Amino acid sequence: MTITKPKRKSRILTEDKILQAAITIFSKFGFEKASLKQIGEKAGINEALIIRYYGSKAKLLVAIHKEYLDNLDLVIGDHPMCDSLEEEIKSYLLREMNSDLKNIDMRRIIISRASLDVKFRKEIES
């Protein structure tokens, strides 16, 4: 059975809802205290669907980290060239800082989780 385009689009939208809800819930309660039920309620879906798509809360956090890295690649690649190397470095560092500031709660959770959970750290390093 192949996935039709409308189903594929629907899944992408659902995954985005889950990721955004997870970011909100993880930021508010922290990784340990957050539950898939809370994330499901925030996303307007059943928590069983989160398990079906991601497998676990830890794997959901890995997906958030990967999404962050994908978006970071877009930010890095999408800018006009500067006149000098010095300006290029300044521009890069400003983009990095702004990106991290926008996502500071999630960065904090990911760094904290990686320091406590060796399996999680290995997964995000790969």
Question: Summed up, what is this model?
Answer:
It is built from seven helices and no strands. The protein has 126 residues and is mainly alpha-helical. The mean pLDDT is 86.
Low-pLDDT runs of 5+ residues are none
> How many strand segments?
0
- Total of helices: 7
The end-to-end span amounts to: 31 Å
| Shape designation | globular
CATH class designation:
Mainly Alpha
The major β-sheet equals: none
Portion in strands: under 5%
Helical amount? over 70%
What is the CATH homologous superfamily assignment? Answer: Tetracycline Repressor, domain 2
The domain count comes to 1
The gyration radius over C-alpha positions equals: 17 Å
Give the overall average pLDDT.
86
Helix-strand sequence: HHHHHHH
What structural class do you assign from the helix and strand content? Answer: mainly alpha
CATH architecture name: Orthogonal Bundle
CATH third-tier fold name: Tetracycline Repressor, domain 2
Q: Could you list some keywords that capture this structure?
A:
126 residues; mainly alpha; Tetracycline Repressor, domain 2; 7 helices
Structure description:
The chain is mainly α and 126 residues long. It has helices at residues 5-29, 36-43, 47-54, 57-77, 85-102, 104-116, 118-125. The protein has a single domain, classed as Orthogonal Bundle (Tetracycline Repressor, domain 2). Helix content is 80%, strand content 0%. It is globular and about 50 Å long.
SSE topology:
Layout: H1 5-29, H2 36-43, H3 47-54, H4 57-77, H5 85-102, H6 104-116, H7 118-125
